[in-house]
Amino acid sequence: MKSCLFCRIVSGEVKSDIIYENDVLIVFKDIHPIAPVHVLIVPKKHFSHLVEMVESEEGRTVLNDITKVLPDIVRSAGLENRGFRLVNNCKEEGGQTVPHVHFHLIGGKSLSRELP
Ligand code: AMP
Ligand code: ZN
To answer: Domains of the chain by range and CATH?
Structure first.
């Protein structure tokens, strides 16, 4: 999608600090990190949000692909010996600001047990 920020990052039109990439996804550093490690796991194909993604066969395949390489992503983020939080904000009320599905991988410090 031409107007989508993350599609433009996927195509390389908008620069990002990529820490991991394969055929179906890229992982890059969040521009406003909330922890020492804060990267975004972003499917290359555009799905607006998580529910839209899992409603399609292709989206479910991509989600499965993400789970398969999660250990590699965690290693690339330097979190292999630590804990982390994996977050998806779904749609506006869920706090999603970029309408291209993505997962926040957050860590590098002790995170609060409280969820908002
Ligand atoms: P969300 O609010 O869940 O949709 O997350 C969107 C995230 O994208 C936020 O944490 C932003 O800081 C991050 N973000 C926005 N623009 C960029 C960008 N150009 N490069 C990297 N991260 C970005
Ligand atoms: Zn997009």
So the answer is: 5-107 (3.30.428.10)
